[in-house]
Design brief:
This protein is α/β, with parallel strands linked by helices and 213 residues long. It has 11 helices and 5 strands, in the order αβαβααβαβαααααβα. The chain has helices at residues 8-13, 29-41, 61-73, 75-81, 98-104, 117-122, 134-145, 154-163, 166-182, 187-190, 201-212, and strands at 21-26, 49-54, 85-91, 109-114, 197-198. Strands 2-1-3-4-5 form a 5-stranded mixed sheet. Helix 2 (29-41) packs across helix 8 (154-163) and helix 9 (166-182) packs antiparallel against helix 11. The longest helix is centred in the C-terminal third of the chain and has 17 residues, at 166-182. It starts with 7 loop residues before the first helix and ends with a helix.
Length: 213
């Protein structure tokens, strides 16, 4: 569990916010396995509940957005999750009108990665500062894992958390976000120009605070 704990110095520097009850809609299995890893460590109680929902059509960013909207319009689901914080996790490589999808999803907290969730995973091992091809990202992950990286593989996803450095990934993602902010770029207007990028770190940092205390 040590890999999911913040260092004492980082813990003292990080502002704690109550996670509370949240629901995360994921585009793919890799994202679900990753978030599940943390959700299983954080104890569920009357104040905290983390539900991770997988969109099973294996579509793209718009598919998971449509799924989340339909899920929440279901009377039973709406009654149960109406007060939950709502998150969307998706890649920005598809569809071509990804900017429109990001804008349409503004009512959710966005855990998005450009261009892949694996961009965030690679940050657990090295700084990612420039745009990389999908093949190069997978090749580098395979190198760090000492075995072929497989997308949607539960064991490989958990190995990344256990053997990588989550704090390093958070720092890398934050530096990139600040760089884009200085350039005047925002995910709501410039997501295609923000590669590499990930906002996953924002929730993961809070998960780690919860675990570390």
């Amino acid at each position: 569990m040590g890999r999911t704990r913040l260092s004492p110095q980082r813990l003292s520097e990080t502002k704690k916010t109550n996670i509370g009850r949240i629901i995360i809609f994921c585009e793919g299995k890799t994202e679900k396995y990753y978030f599940d890893y943390f959700a299983e460590i954080i104890k569920k109680n009357k104040y905290t509940d983390i539900e991770v929902i997988l969109e099973t059509a294996n579509g793209n960013a718009r598919t998971v957005l449509n799924f989340a909207n339909e899920f929440m319009t279901d009377e039973k689901h709406n009654q149960k999750f109406s007060t939950y914080g709502k998150y969307l996790a998706f890649d920005c490589d598809d569809p071509p009108d990804i900017q429109a999808v990001v804008l349409a999803a503004a009512e959710y907290e966005l855990l998005i990665s450009n261009h892949l969730f694996e961009t965030w995973l690679l940050m657990h091992f090295e700084d990612v500062e420039e745009k990389l091809s999908k093949g190069e990202i997978y090749r580098r992950l395979s190198f760090h894992l000492h075995g072929t990286y497989s997308k949607g593989h539960k064991g490989k996803t958990r190995e990344i958390v256990r053997n990588g450095n989550v704090e390093k990934a958070i720092d890398n993602a934050r530096i990139l976000e600040r760089r884009y902010a200085v350039e005047g770029k925002s995910i709501f207007t410039d997501i295609k120009d923000m590669n590499p990028f990930t906002s996953v770190y924002k929730l993961i940092e809070q998960f780690m605070v919860e675990i570390s205390e």
